[in-house]
Amino acid sequence: MPGSASRPLVLWSAVVLALLAAHDLTHALDDGLNTTLAGLAIVAVPQWIALAFLMGVIVRGEPARSAAAALVLSFGVVVGFVAVHLLPFSPAAYWDLHPSAISWFAVWAPLAAGLVLGRLAWQQWRAATRRPPPVSAAA
Predict the structure, then answer these.
(1) By the 8 A CB rule, do 27 and 38 touch?
(2) Please, are residues 68 and 129 in contact by the beta-carbon 8 Å criterion?
(3) Which of 15, 39, 48, 124 has CA 20 to 30 A from 73's CA?
């Protein structure tokens, strides 16, 4: 890897992105979700541009910056899925649609992976930003 990002952080970020791609595919292929391809493109294209930028920072950034970008990715995925699909009053609540079992999996799996990524990113960010204790002059 060109940067000094940890392998687990990059791996879990890639897993989250793969699961997000699978979720987008379910929107395109599952008739029970009532998603038009144009509607999907309006949401997905800007989202994937931002995700590509974040992944670039995760892979190439210094450890603290890489972990911070992974935290942003994790937060966005977890909060995004809950706010857009899982709350009963959300704009595309799955409770009001007729998703297949695969589509339900493609909602919960990125959410779970996002939580794992968030925990790992938080640990790595804390380790990378922890300052060494000050050196005393009377040593």
Answers:
(1) no
(2) no
(3) 39
Q: Long-range contacts made by residues 119-125, C-beta under 8 angstroms, separation at least 24? A: 120/8, 120/9, 120/12, 120/70, 121/9, 121/67, 121/68, 121/70, 121/71, 121/73, 121/74, 122/67, 122/71, 124/6, 124/9, 124/63, 124/66, 124/67, 124/70, 125/64, 125/67, 125/68, 125/71
Distances (CA, A) of 49 to 42, 52, 66, 93, 107: 12, 5, 17, 24, 20
Q: How far is the C-alpha of 21 from the C-alpha of 15, rounded, in Å?
A: 10
26-63, pLDDT tens digit by residue? 999 999 998 999 999 999 999 999 999 999 999 999 99
Using CA atoms, how far apart are residues 36 and 40, in angstroms rounded to an integer? Answer: 6
Would the pTM of this model clear 0.85, i.e. be above it? yes
